[in-house]
Specification:
- It is a single chain.
- With 94 residues, the chain is mostly beta strands.
- It has 1 helix and 6 strands, in the order ββββαββ.
- The protein has a 6-stranded antiparallel β-sheet, with no helix packed on it.
- β1 and β2 form a beta hairpin.
- The protein starts with 14 loop residues before the first strand and ends with a strand.
Length: 94
């Protein structure tokens, strides 16, 4: 997992993360964009497992219409592109 800063003309957007306790030691949820005018959109499922000590993210991310070049450049760094959307399939054990 790599984090970086991107200079944009406004904040990237507003997002929500929801998590629910499915059973002992396991949680699932989602990361989603909550404003239509966001520069960067997410629709990602999240799975956390205490027993296997793992985190998994599966979904996609995309830039809003007519967004800054810096935002467009970040999308391919998140995963392989399909229909101008990054396919996010990330899993790690800790």
């Amino acid at each position: 997992l790599t984090l970086g800063l991107v200079r944009t003309p406004q904040p990237l957007g507003s997002y929500s993360i929801t998590l629910a306790d499915n059973r002992e030691g396991e949680m699932s949820g989602a990361l989603q964009t909550i404003n239509d005018d966001a520069l960067l959109h997410f629709d990602v499922n999240i799975n956390l497992n205490a027993e296997s000590r793992s985190v998994a993210l599966h979904g996609h991310a995309w830039a809003g219409n007519n967004q800054a070049e810096a935002v467009q450049a970040v999308i391919p760094l998140m995963g392989p592109l399909q229909n101008n959307r990054a396919q996010i399939n990330w899993q790690r054990s800790f």
